[in-house]
Design goal:
Helix 1 crosses helix 3 and helix 4 packs antiparallel against helix 5. The protein has 2 domains: about 130 residues, Acyl-CoA dehydrogenase/oxidase, N-terminal domain (Butyryl-Coa Dehydrogenase, subunit A, domain 1, Orthogonal Bundle), CATH 1.10.540.10; about 90 residues, Beta Barrel (Butyryl-CoA Dehydrogenase, subunit A, domain 2), CATH 2.40.110.10. By secondary structure, it is an alpha+beta fold. The longest helix has 20 residues. The protein has a 4-stranded antiparallel beta sheet with strand order 2-3-7-6, with no helix packed on it. The model has no long low-confidence stretch (mean pLDDT about 95). The protein has 5 helices and 7 strands; from the N terminus they run H-H-H-H-H-E-E-E-E-E-E-E. Bound molecules: flavin-adenine dinucleotide. Flavin-adenine dinucleotide binds next to strand 1.
Length: about 230
């Protein structure tokens, strides 16, 4: 395991090659937003997502992304203390400000697939999500299923040939406009208790039948969306 002080110095050396130190900023110049959910147009949201993804990809390729992920997925299998050490250094540089879609993709969805996905899913998605090549959103909440998530009514039905068809309506989906895949909680068996009979699906957000409708916030932006799934 690398010495943590040396690790910090190496991180600083790499960050110096890709970003300016924050101390170069002049107080009062540039954006001062601390918003988690921005008031972006669809084009702005996509442009910011692309900019952050490019930085995340460079970071991953240089060995500074996915620090505590398994080596098989391009990580370094280091303890969380190294992730925090890197972040402390990274915070002193003017790198693109990550949106919640990157923590959703890299810290929630990728580890979930690594833990519970099939081998094919792990091979196909985990590294790609950690590198931010693939962005994922979470299709969980519905109008009648929030805290009581087991009440989801979106249905997935299996045909005789083994294929699945999904019908339903999700709401409050953060970042659905920029996501490549959605992780959807669906009811696959309505004859059992409601906390059973549920299955997670990975849905390509450009599949026919997926309709993303932005929800306009009081502040003007549309960070959240409704997602209609019609014969997907
Ligand atoms: C910033 C943000 C981002 C989000 N992004 C996503 C996303 O990407 N994907 C997604 O699927 N969802 C997303 N959501 C939705 C979120 O998961 C739901 O808002 C959450 O599950 C709560 O559901 P609800 O809003 O329907 O509230 P409800 O479940 O209707 O709860 C309303 C109130 O009732 C209380 N309450 C509920 N049940 C009980 C009970 N049994 N006893 C006592 N009190 C109770 C709750 O504590 C709460 O105060 C997001 C929400 C927020 C705020």
């Amino acid at each position: 395991m690398p010495d943590i002080a040396e690790f910090g110095e190496q991180a600083t050396a790499w960050l110096t090659t890709v970003a300016a130190p924050r101390t170069d900023s002049v107080w009062g110049d540039g954006p001062d937003t601390v918003a988690v959910f921005e008031n972006w147009t669809a084009e702005e949201e996509q442009a910011h997502t692309d900019e952050i993804a490019a930085y995340e990809q460079a970071k991953f390729d240089a060995g500074w992304g996915a620090l505590n992920s398994p080596v098989e997925y391009g990580g370094r299998d280091l303890p969380l203390s190294y992730v925090l050490a890197f972040r402390r250094v990274e915070d002193t540089f003017d790198v693109p400000k990550r949106t919640e879609m990157f923590s959703v993709t890299q810290q929630l969805v990728a580890p979930t697939i690594a833990q519970w996905g099939t081998e094919e899913q792990r091979t196909r998605f985990v590294r790609a999500m950690l590198r931010a090549d693939v962005i994922a959103c979470q299709l969980f909440s519905e109008t009648e299923a929030g805290s009581d998530l087991a009440a989801v009514r979106t249905r997935a039905t299996q045909a005789e040939d083994g294929s699945w068809t999904i019908d339903g309506h999700k709401v409050w989906t953060s970042g659905a406009r920029v996501a490549h895949y959605g992780v959807a909680l669906c009811r696959t068996d309505s004859t059992v208790a409601k906390h059973a009979g549920l299955t997670m699906f990975l849905i390509p957000m450009d599949a026919p039948g997926v309709d993303v409708r932005p929800i306009r916030q009081m502040t003007g932006g549309s960070s959240f969306n409704e997602v209609y799934l019609d014969g997907v």
